[in-house]
Design goal:
16% of the residues lie in helices and 35% in strands. The chain is globular.
Length: 117
């Protein structure tokens, strides 16, 4: 594929539950259903951005820089099983899946090779 594409469902939270290995994110069942479609093209991933509690601390912007506080984490839920839950599903996103420039490049290369995420 010469022109890889990636869809992202972006969520933002200051109430993240982080343990040593995972970000635990409560995702609405509707969103879980959208994200778990297998072999979708373009692929769709979840990115959960963890921000500070106070909105004024979220980012700093000037002509020289844009600094977003904390971190974003990504996961592909394609092919995941459906849930019996009615409201939310707690998604465990590995903390090693930081949504960085290098991670995005790697995801796009996988898509270009036709690999699943």
């Amino acid at each position: 594929m010469g022109n890889p594409q990636l869809y992202v469902q972006l969520k933002c939270t200051s109430r993240a539950i982080l343990d040593e290995n995972y970000l635990k994110y409560p995702l609405k069942v509707k969103n879980h259903e959208e994200l778990r479609v297998p072999q979708q093209y373009p692929p769709l991933i979840l990115v959960a951005v963890v921000v500070p509690d106070h909105i004024n601390d979220w980012l700093y912007q000037s002509e020289e820089e844009l600094c977003l506080k904390r971190c974003g984490y990504w996961i592909s839920l394609a092919g995941e099983a459906s849930t019996e839950n009615q409201e939310t599903v707690t998604v465990s996103i590995p903390r090693e899946n930081r949504f960085t420039v290098n991670a995005l490049k790697s995801l796009m290369q996988c898509i270009a090779r036709g690999e699943t995420l």
